[in-house]
Amino acid sequence: MVHYRKATLTDVENLVNLRIKFLYEAEKIDEETPSDLLEESLSKYFTIHLQNGEFIAWFAVEDDLIVATSGVSFSTVPPSFGNVSGAEAYIINMYTLPQARKKGIGTTLLGKLIEDIAEKKIKKVRLLTTEIGKSLYIKTGFKESDSEMVLNLEE
User: Fold this and answer.
1) Cβ–Cβ under 8 Å, residues 42 and 19
2) Is the dihedral of CA 108, 14, 19, 47 positive or negative?
3) Tally of CB atoms within 10 A around 13
4) What pLDDT tens digit does each residue of the chain (155 aa) get?
5) What's the DSSP call for residue 80?
6) Rounded to a whole number, what is the largest CA-CA distance in the chain?
7) Residue 126 three-state SS
8) How far apart are CA 15 and CA 105, in angstroms?
9) What's this model's pTM, rounded to 2 decimal places?
């Protein structure tokens, strides 16, 4: 049986490990690629942002194994006509282990995030999706947009 719980500071290592698994899969990166620097950065990020409330994460746990996670980052951007508060939520870190997929776990986790977002009275929710997750978001009411573009500057 699956049960759900909110992540705490004691879960930083779990969040890091699942994020790395997600990135290897989503970005099609060879799992032999070293991740030490990324793990260190993720650990700092999750520690700081869980503590200050700018990041919330949920876990799905089955037989004492975390089988899925979800997360949301909160930020404020300059207000616009469509978002007069400027408050935004960015859903990230939605990941289910392959053996636990297609059981409704992602749907439940997404619902929990949306409840957390609604409690903060945030109206604008953004995300990027993989092909695997696209149907979940569409089913939940997300609309596809052509407006999201990315520029990656060399470090």
Assistant:
1) yes
2) positive
3) 12
4) 999 999 999 999 999 999 999 999 999 999 999 999 999 999 999 999 999 999 999 999 999 999 999 999 999 999 999 899 999 999 998 999 999 999 999 999 999 999 999 999 998 999 988 888 888 998 999 888 766 666 667 75
5) B
6) 47
7) strand
8) 17
9) 0.90
Q: Distance (Å, rounded) from C-alpha 108 to C-alpha 58?
A: 10
| Domains of the chain as residue ranges with CATH | 2-140 (3.40.630.30)
User: Residue-wise over 47-71: b if at least 16 C-beta within 10 A, else e?
Assistant: eebbeeeebbbbbbebeeebbbbbb
Token pair 């696209």 is found at: 134
Task: Give the tokens for residue 131.
Answer: 């092909």
- Measured from the Cβ of residue 131, the count of other Cβ atoms closer than 10 Å reads 7
Other beta carbons less than 10 A from residue 103's beta carbon: 15
Would you give the distance in Å from CA 154 to the centre of its chain? 25
Q: How far apart are CA 69 and CA 106, in angstroms?
A: 8
